[in-house]
Records
---
Amino acid sequence: MSRPLPSVFDQALASAVRAPSPHNTQPWRFVVEHEVIEVWLDRERVLAVADPHGREARLACGAAAFNLQICLRANGLAAVVRLLPDPDEPDLVAVIRLDGNEKASAAERKLADAVFRRHTNRRPLLDKEVPVVARTALKSAALREGGQVEYLDASGRYTPVASLVRQAEALQADDHAFKAEAAFWTHRDSDSPDGVPKIASGPPPHSPGIVSLRGSHENRELPEREYEREPLLGAVLTRDRGPHAEVRAGMAMQRVLLTATAEGLATSFLSQPFETPRTRESLDRLFAGLGQPHTLLRIGYGYPTRLTARRPVKDVLTHRTARDVPAS
Ligand SMILES: Cc1cc2nc3c(=O)[nH]c(=O)nc-3n(C[C@H](O)[C@H](O)[C@H](O)COP(=O)(O)O)c2cc1C
């Protein structure tokens, strides 16, 4: 096998850091050793209030691992991904090992391109239906990574889930610790290397909608706007639960998001009900029999918004020459 050029690894790492993460915390570190890239969870960047068990952070790390893999694939390199490979190192989330050369397909190149266009769109979407062909493409994307997408409109879960989103949003709006954490990470200047900048926030809704986006992501300097009436909601599930399933779900989520981007769809997240114990239990019950829900996506057509910044790769990368763990 021909050795990968250093620039391919540079590109792959630049793709990895474009992954989404809760409040753009970027809870990852990467270690490169010969032909291996490791993805580590950075505990310092796990949200202590919203995500005390690091569940959302593992989804983000899974998404970063997917970006690494798809970028290597687009460059004609096969890459084997092992998730949580070492029981003694629970923060070693994924190991990506090169495994020969293999011509990239057009679909893989399309997904790799979408990495640099995908973004969270918190603005109103158009009241335009997502066609069956696009819905099917997102479902297949999740299945390819060992996950599932369940559309709520098809299942009668729409109303109860939308109500849990509103309930959790109300609980969080009354929780000082939650509000302080959200305030720390949001309304940043646009050149902030992490956190959510004001330019990525949406306008306040003119009237309360069937689902509520996060109040902490609202830009109250913008005039009120009417949001779409009933956005398409898709839950990302896996059969299993636990840390391994969370990383797997992160990879599935990212393939879904990139497929959506490639299909011209806008996406955003509704994570509130996963972050308060009571609503989370209710969510688990609603999906009992289908799988473990990990995240909830709002999907539709909208106008692209600006990309948010990331910390430079050099700040999250260690080159290992001897066996050691990354410095935090
Ligand atoms: C697990 C997870 C949960 C998220 N939850 C929310 C959410 O509830 N509301 C929201 O507006 N964005 C949410 N996001 C999106 C992040 O805020 C976003 O990925 C980050 O700010 C980087 O911006 P980008 O996605 O535009 O690149 C979530 C992202 C991840 C990975």
---
Amino acid sequence: MLVAGGAGYIGSHTCKALARADFEPVVFDDLSNGHADAVRWGPLVVGDVRDSAAVSACMKAHAVSAVIHFAGLIEVGRSMHEPALFWDYNLNGVASVLAAMRVNGLNRIVFSSTAAVYGQPGGDSGELLDEDAPTVPINPYGESKLAAERLIAAHCRAHGVQGVALRYFNASGADPEGEIGEAHQPESHLIPLAIEASLGLGPRLTVFGRDFSTPDGACIRDYIHVADLAEAHVRALDAPVGDAGFVALNLGLGRGLSVLDVISAVSRATGRATPFTVGPRRPGDPAVLVADPSRARAVLNWRPAHQTIDDIVATALAWRLNPRFGPASATSAARVA
Ligand SMILES: NC(=O)c1ccc[n+]([C@@H]2O[C@H](COP(=O)([O-])OP(=O)(O)OC[C@H]3O[C@@H](n4cnc5c(N)ncnc54)[C@H](O)[C@@H]3O)[C@@H](O)[C@H]2O)c1
């Protein structure tokens, strides 16, 4: 398997799941945001996915049979300031990989998509989102990911190949065996930031808005463990895609938790209070974003193993206390008194 972006957070967990399923993951990554130390289950080829000749040469050299594509830029806020960069990485990167697949006669791609393709669904209604919900992204990140999905779907139709877009909700947690974990730089995700604040290793957490029409006024999201996401990718490699040759699937637990619920879970895990302040809402943050994952369950025969936020946070905390790589790896454990 060619795993584009396999040195990153979700990609590296997927490589571990691939190896467990007896595939050899060949990671193609420019290491702009990934970690060479996270590549442990197969070779690492350093390169930019927008360089189609390099991707094609890698496919040939390693005789790969399919592609899982994680490579891209992920920070929503940055996408507002640098839209052209996001379109370049997230759309041209996919076009380049599809071209290399054609050269090498590969016929399946599994693509990392996102709940951000839905934009602000249903206002504050809080209904579970299925894949037929309108896709109206509200930032260049979501727009570029939706465009990439559409390009893949068109490519599948035109060339008789097969594509699966996996729309993740909030990826979270770390490898339960502690070998790999989340090491984004900068970190923008709630659970690692809350853990930092709770352990006194990072600044006080900011909760963006407590005036949403939710029971406690904070945003509600669907947190899905990264190892369960990884397992879904392995299953997507031979999932049925229908006559269109392309299917999009929501990956979430189908259960919403508020930001304050997550903060409480972090405090339970660390045994310490998690200091936070309430700030204004971020532009474009919907009140509720929770998946209806029924289609993924049916198509992938997928059942997430990590069902509670305490379980998810426990793995994230274990990783934070003993990170094997990333910005926190050198001193973290020693600094937690
Ligand atoms: N983390 C989440 O909660 C989340 C949620 C929804 C969707 N996603 C999607 O999942 C994918 C992976 O997310 P992640 O959290 O693992 O991010 P990440 O930044 O940890 O991983 C992305 C990897 O891609 C590599 N990369 C980036 N541009 C590249 C290029 N041009 N050529 C080669 N390699 C390149 C980076 O070095 C990194 O290793 C992204 O496409 C993202 O849009 C993530």
